C-alpha cells in the first residue's frame, strides 16, 4: 500500500488585518476625510466576515475528507491483514513453506502500514489527495475480500474432497462388514445357532410371538402388492384421488401420499374377509352352517400341518401340484373379487388374465405374482391362527371411533401434530382400519388405523 506522505500546512495571513492597515496608510498619505473612510471600512468588514466564514467551511470540509480518507485506508489495511492471515492458515495444511513465508511477509508489511497511519493521525498529517486515496482504498478492500473468498472456496473444496474420500472409505467398510455378516450368518445357520423363529416350530411351543412375527411378513407382502396395484392405476391414467374417494369418501388426508393407505384398506378388507371362519370362505356350505365351537387338538394339528406344508413351498408350485385344493380356490376367489373387470381392462386392455384365473390357470405377470405371494401369507396366517387354543380372533375398528393405544396404532404421525389451517383443531378419529388386529387368548395385537379429523 502507498505510504502516507505528510503535507506542510502554510498558515494564512489575516486578509482583513492586512487590508485595514493598507487602507490607513494610504489615507494618511493622501489626506482623505475620516468619515468617508470609515464607511468604506464598515462595508469591507462585512465582506471580510463572509469570506472568513467561507474559508472556515472549506477548511472543515478538507479536514473531514482527510479523516475519511485515513479511515478508508485503515479499513482497507485491516482487510488486507485478514486476507494475508487467511492465506497463511491455508498454506499450513497442506504445508507450503514458500506460501507461508510470503503470507508472513505480507502480514508484517500491512502491520507496518497500520503503524504509519497511527503516526500520521497523531501528528495531524493529512493526505494531500484524499479523493484519490478513497478510491484506492476501496479497490484495495475489494481485492482483499475477493482474495479471502477465494481462499475460503479452496478450503471448502478441500473439505469436500476429504468428506468424499471418507464416504468412499465408509462404503468400503460397510461392504466389508456386510460380507462379514453374511459369512457369520451362514456359519451360524450351518451350525444351527441362528434360524427363523418359525423354523422347526412345534405346536406345543406355539405362542403369540410367532403369530406377530408372521403377521409382520404378511403386512409387508400386502403393501408390496398395493404398491404394484397403484403403479398399474397410474399407468392406466386413473385419478388416484378419485379412486381413493370412491373407496373411502369424505376422508381428510394429512398428505397426498397417505391415499395409498385407502387402497391397502380395500385390499385388506377383501383378503381378510371370512378370516373368522375355519374354511376362510363365505361361499362354502360348511361355512354357512358353521357355529363357533372349541377346536379339538386334531383340528389344531391339521391347521398347523397345513401351515408347515405350504410355508416350505412356493405358491406357484403348490398350485400347480394341487390345482383343486382349498388354497387354489381361495386364490381364484380373492383375485376375481379384488381385481374388478373394469380395472383389469384398464390395466391390460383385455380380460384374458381374468379368464385364465377363472379357468384354473395362473398367469405369469408381476401383478399376479405379487398377489400370489400376498395370498399365501394371508392363508398361512389363517392356518396359524387356528393352530392356537383358543384360535386367534380378528377385529377391526369402526369409522369414527376414538383412538386407543391399547387396541390401535396409527399408520402416520401427522394425526397427532398440532392443528393447522388445513386441519382444524379437533380430536382425531378413526377414518378406516388399514390392518386388522387380533386377539390370542388374553393377548391383543393392535390393529393399524388411519386417523383423520371430521
Automatic annotation (TrEMBL):
Keyword tags: Coiled coil
Stretches assigned to the GIL1/IRKI C-terminal domain: 394-450
Keyword Transferase: no
Top-level taxon: Eukaryota
InterPro entries: DUF641_pln (IPR006943), GIL1-like (IPR040225), GIL1_IRKI_C (IPR056813)
Matching Pfam families: DUF641, GIL1_IRKI_C
Domain DUF641: 64-187
Record flagged with keyword Metal-binding: no
Coiled coil feature spans: 139-187
PANTHER family listed in its UniProt record: PROTEIN GRAVITROPIC IN THE LIGHT 1
Name assigned to this protein: IRK-interacting protein
Organism from which the protein derives: Camelina sativa (False flax)
